[in-house]
Amino acid sequence: MSEEVILIVDDVPSSLGALVGELEAEGYTVLVAGDGAAALERLELVTPDAILLDALMPGLDGFEVCRRLKAEPAWAHVPVIFMTGLSETAHIVAGFSAGGVDYVVKPVRAQEVLARLATHVRNARAARLAREAVDIGGLGVLVADARGRIAWHSPQAQRWLRAFFADESEGVAWLLDAEADEIERGGPQSRVLRARRLGSVGLGESMWLLRLRAADETGSSRLATAALTPRETEVLSWIAKGKTNRDVAEILGMSPRTVNKHLEHVFEKLGVETRAAAAALASRELG
């Protein structure tokens, strides 16, 4: 049985009585808002695990509601499924452009909604846990899309962008205009911001690893030239903080054996033979 909270936003909520009943029977806690403004008020009180959002409503329509919640870091991770009586391509495109992850056509079919909800809630939870691990590890990670927007960044990456650029959009442009996979930019207090492209993570999206170094630090760091994968970097970061393989496995949601395999690759790429040597190197360079 589920314990997730689902927010349904519809200007005629009485028409969704059967759906609400099915959701509650599956163990979901269901909240209902009758318009866009009420939905935003609900979000101030509780962050749901998913939102079923009517696309066309009087006043604040579903597309604008979605854009506003996706602009708020506290809500941006919540998957939005649009409900619409119109299946025209323009409305579908508008929903995805606003930040929706899926849509269903009214009259909604409860079993279809349940299946879609289960998938999107599960995926959103996995993504949130991974991002929390990055946040806790203090890594500067940023994902940018092809339109020059930040799809997501860790708190550390956000702090560094604000320190080195007048606004975040300037920082993203710096990354997207880069001709090399590793670039640097000088900044305040004789510090240099280094960015390394980790590769593509989605349609038109690229992931970057950011780190600081002193301006008088010569040569490329061993971590910067080791080409560690994002997962290997996460594992190494936790090892540097004194965590055991079992601890790291629980934090990152993998088996201790998988953690050990990642470490074997890390040792090989860094040119070290022991866990202690890798941890010491990471402590110096990741901070």
Furnish the topology, listing elements before pairings.
Blueprint: E1 5-9, H1 17-25, E2 29-33, H2 36-45, E3 50-54, H3 62-70, E4 80-84, H4 89-98, E5 102-105, H5 110-137, E6 140-144, E7 150-153, H6 155-164, H7 168-176, E8 182-186, E9 191-202, E10 205-214, H8 222-226, H9 230-240, H10 245-252, H11 256-270, H12 275-286
Parallel strand pairs: 1-2, 1-3, 3-4, 4-5
Antiparallel strand pairs: 6-7, 6-10, 8-9, 9-10
Can you describe this structure?
- Helix content is 47%, strand content 21%.
- The chain has twelve helices and ten strands.
- The strands form two sheets. A five-stranded parallel beta sheet has the order 2-1-3-4-5, sandwiched between helices. It has a five-stranded antiparallel beta sheet with strand order 7-6-10-9-8, covered by helices on one side.
- It is globular and about 65 Å long.
- The mean pLDDT is 84.
